[in-house]
Amino acid sequence: MRHAIQWLLSLIFIVQMYLAMAVVGLLYLPYAILSPDGALAACHAYCRWVLFSLRVLTGLRTEVRGTPPTHEVLVAAKHQSFLDILMIFHAIPRGKFIMKRELIYAPILGWFALRIGCVPVNRGKRGAAITKMMADVKSGAQRAGQLIIYSQGTRVAPGVKMPYKAGTAALYMQLGQECYPVATNVGVFWPKRGILRKPGLAVVEFLPPIPAGLPNAQFMERLEREVETASDALMAEAGFRV
Question: Is 111 part of any domain?
Answer without folding.
Answer: yes
